[in-house]
Amino acid sequence: MLPSFPARFRNTVAALTNVVEVTDSLEIFPGIYTTGQVTGDVSEQALAIRTDKGSVIITGCAHPGIAKMVKKGRSTLQPGDEVQYAPVALVVGGFHLAGASPAQIERVIADLLSLNVQQVCPTHCTGDVTIAMFAEAFGEGFIPGGAGKVITLP
């Protein structure tokens, strides 16, 4: 849990389980990491998963920005020279772009393409217009999301 979470929420969760506060990236299971805190208007963390098919980044709402979340996840899994980073196999979750202008959405799409993201599965807080734009931009690399969706990496 991030230190920025409200005390009331922290106490509710702590009554049910052991709470580990994180600010930096941390391996929580072999090959599965929290990015640690990614700062923004609302700070968040993401899951960064190392698979034999490449990196997978899973976001909540990506309030700090989806490209920023992907950069943090990628560097968590591939510390070192950014030039040497392998492609990101999949980014899935909320992209926090509902209500964004087409120009903003196009910039984010360009950012993710420049980060060598191969597949996207934008969900809940992304917005229908944004999801359609991602589908067009990523073509076969677009995966429609939804509750219960099972994604198999190629």
The major sheet is characterized as: 6 strands, mixed
Poorly predicted regions are none
End-to-end C-alpha gap: 32 Å
Radius of gyration computed on alpha carbons = 16 Å
Describe this structure in words.
- The chain has a six-stranded mixed β-sheet.
- The radius of gyration is 16 Å and the shape is globular.
- A hairpin with a 2-residue loop joins strand 3 and strand 4.
- The protein has four helices and six strands.
- It starts with 6 loop residues before the first helix and ends in a 16-residue tail after the last helix.
Give a quick set of tags describing it:
single chain, 154 residues, alpha/beta, 6-stranded mixed beta sheet, 6 strands, globular
List strands and helices in order, with pairings:
Elements: H1 7-14, E1 26-29, E2 32-34, E3 47-51, E4 54-58, H2 66-77, E5 88-93, H3 102-114, E6 120-122, H4 128-138
Parallel strand pairs: 4-5, 5-6
Antiparallel strand pairs: 1-2, 2-3, 3-4
Helix pairs in contact: 3-4
Entry summary:
The protein has 4 helices and 6 strands. The protein is an alpha/beta fold.
